[in-house]
Model the fold of this input.
Amino acid sequence: MADQITTATGTGDIIPLAYPIDVAATVAGVPRRKIFQAVADQKLTARKAGRSTIVERDELVAWIKSLPTRGKQPEPATAA
Done:
């Protein structure tokens, strides 16, 4: 999903800070309506940029991690 850019130091990937709703749904692997429902339920924060609705990448990751798990439980984060 990252775009290529050319910088003074060469070519690199742009890592988006936020995604439009359609892209957020695709990245999360859920239908658009799940994103809108999570926003309506105040479980996911969306922001408005003019007429566009965007979801910050970190917000999306946090929401995904807050979803119920099935099967093997995720490993706890270790301190570096």
